[in-house]
Amino acid sequence: MSGAALGLEIVFVFFLALFLLHRYGDFKKQHRLVIIATLLAWYLCFLIVFILPLDVSTTIYNRCKLAVNSSPAESNGSYVILAPSKQKCFKPWSYIPDGIMPIFWRVVYWTSQFLTWILLPFMQSYARSGGFSITGKIKTALIENAIYYGTYLLIFGAFLIYVAVNPNFNLQWNQLQTIGIAAANTWGLFLLVLLLGYGLVEIPRSHWNGAKRGYLLMKTYFKAAKLMTEKADAEENLEDIMEEVRKVSESIKYNHPLRKCVDTILKKCPTEYQERMGRNMDDYEDFDERQNSYPSEKSLAKLHKQVIYSVQRYRRTQVQWQILLEQAFYLEDVAKNESSATRQFVHTFHSQEPENKIIQYFYTPTVEWYWECLLRPWFYRVLAVVLATFSVIVVWSECTFFSTKPVLSLFAVFIQLAEKTYNYIYIEMACFLTIFFLSICVYSTVFRIRVFNYYYLASHHQTDAYSLLFSGMLFCRLTPPLCLNFLGLTHMDATISHKNTQPTAYTSIMGSMRVLSFIADGFYIYYPMLVVILCIATYFSLGTRCLNLLGFQQFMGDSEMTSDLIDEGKELIRREKRKRQRQEEGENRRREWKERYGNRDDSTRNRAVHTDQKESSFSETNANRPLSKYTRSNGRTERDRIELLQDAEPLDFNADAVNDDPLESDSGR
């Protein structure tokens, strides 16, 4: 089993990152480089979270092995060997051989840092650029990132000057590397505490509110009103942009040098607008630079950028509106079925997507009723209590993890108790649950936050390239300080425990933070305590109230604006529901008509086809017979035809049918 656990987790994490990226990104429409860069960033960050518990168990085993093979007073280099344990050291099932983890962490860490500080910011500017050539996009990206990279160089230069001026330090490559890591982790820890303080309170509260049917339905109505406003704004913005595109397309003819740029812009427009503009594109007139004023390539690049943004926003709001409608209809069905006497879940509308037969077999209407109306609220309440307990433990440990005598951090107490008995499975499970809960609190906040319309992770393949790359940047910057914070909570970091024991492979890659004492002994220890203030602010919804005062509508139960938006959203949902019902009634009537008269129409159609076939076969038979002009039968047939033609019916002189006006008779004929 040596290294097998590492290989299994590497494969599992890859498919996990691929699944999440497929949910938010669009593999068919977005550029392959954007998909690959985002997938790599997410994959490396998730990999660090899943592999770190294996590093902890391997480190504990190595400490035990050194303690057994050495005397209590013996020292091994910079490490003081612990007293031998009475219990024999057993190799963990997930043991990773020596030398693998340092190389693994070095590759993963520096690759993620290269992505977050150099490649992904450049790709962000490249993706948002409206240039028509690769060279133009690269030039725009370099100009936009000049200030970005200059700020980083300024911060690194400040740390470098501090170390150079201090006579206690000698500038070496390892120390410079540590300064760079400390600068990156400081920035990441600053953002980490903000996101963690929000997630520790909001995640348990959202699950507790998830058990309230009325709460979820009112919040869905509120979202519907806000989304309709955004949807109308997106449609209006798209109409304005398409009008500008139409004017540019009509002014720049086919033989103009910038016509290729206009064609590129037209390809990014929706299909209905392309067809509408294509009707007026039959003009091949020559352009005259003296008489007409044409837009420049720079203005076309700006228009191209606006088209990409407006089309993406329009499509996202359309998809989100349909998803929100389905959610509102389902919540209304749940509210109706709660008082059902048959205890079978009845849907108002049938699902538009085909359901899996296996799910239909097990998830019957009766099972669905018991889950949605009876079990699910209690499950969410129990889950909310468990998550709230974890949040309290995290807050307590963040405020007391610097205390080593006595050990007050509960996570450190759990790990040390398991370390005494060398229960590696318990150690790995405790470490995994701890870091997994911290990651959920931080990463879920990244998925929830929205910075106007510039950064927004929308599910169902509606996230744009800029937001995907920005999320990859945030993950790569937040994960290393998150892991260091986890090692500090469990006292596996020598900087926190103040013990000269063998460090984990991850800590050895990070280097000793004692090079910058004011960061190691000050910022890293006392700044996480601010999570208490952030949790209190989140609990009382201070941020939501501030945004509401600034004019950004937020869901608040005691606000008149919220009540008005709920009523508006309820009316919108009722209107869409009536529209959906009329559509289904029309489809049902057409289906019933087809079932009732479809067989008769088919029999009539088959009879007509059969008659045509008989006539055609009869004509073919007559055509194939030999012609004999001078036979008696042929002459008799010809005489019969002449008699039939001469047998004309007499005219019926009806007064109503007679028309003296020749013009009307011609028109009637």
TrEMBL record:
Annotated transmembrane regions: 6-21, 33-52, 103-126, 146-165, 177-201, 378-396, 425-446, 466-489, 523-542
GO terms of biological process kind: adrenergic receptor signaling pathway
Coiled-coil spans in chain: 224-251
Membrane topology: Multi-pass membrane protein
One Pfam family from the record: LMBR1
Region of interest (Disordered), ranges: 576-669
Subcellular location: Membrane
Domain of life the protein comes from: Eukaryota
Biased composition range(s): Polar residues: 618-634
PANTHER family linked: G-PROTEIN COUPLED RECEPTOR-ASSOCIATED PROTEIN LMBRD2 (PTHR21355:SF0)
Protein name per UniProt: LMBD2 protein
Name of encoding gene: Lmbrd2
